[in-house]
Amino acid sequence: MPEPKIRIRGLRVRYPGGVESLKGIDLDIRQNCITVAFGPAGGGKSTLVSVLNRLIDLSEPEELVGEVLMDGINLLDPELDVVALRRRIGVVFSRPIPLPLTVFQNISYGLEVAGMRDKKMLAERVEKALRQEVINKLFAYQYKITGSWDDPSVTRIIIEHEYPADRS
User: Fold this and answer.
1) Do 35 and 117 fall into the same domain?
2) Which DSSP state fits 65?
3) Domain limit, last residue, from 96, 126, 149
4) I need a labelling partner for 163 at 20 to 30 A (CA). Which of 1, 59, 70, 106 fits?
5) In terms of pTM, does the model score above 0.85?
């Protein structure tokens, strides 16, 4: 049988307060195979996935021990380039989960991982995303209240938000 793509041995994660999410996990994940982790809420599934791409670092566990190898490379090595790792191991959760970062950092995170470094461009993209989210919420709220997309007051708010009048 071929070597596993990912080999996990003795993985244990404990959060502040003594909550032990993973307790001595041993797991081999084969290349080009479907692997399913299922279990009750709070069973450690998200923690396991977060260890694989090092999102666990952002939650600052009290204890993270064991061995996690991908192609023989130690994924828990403090010197590992986590940005490069996250390009290889992505995570899609069933619901959006904000990282323990600022709103700006949460929105710009994907752009930065993709290599965008220009601070001005990052700021513009984050602002655009925030504006779009506000517009989407206003439209959803308008439809919920009126059952129509045609309420002029909400349309006026959106236009003013996107194209503010020159008040100088």
Assistant:
1) no
2) E
3) 96
4) 106
5) no
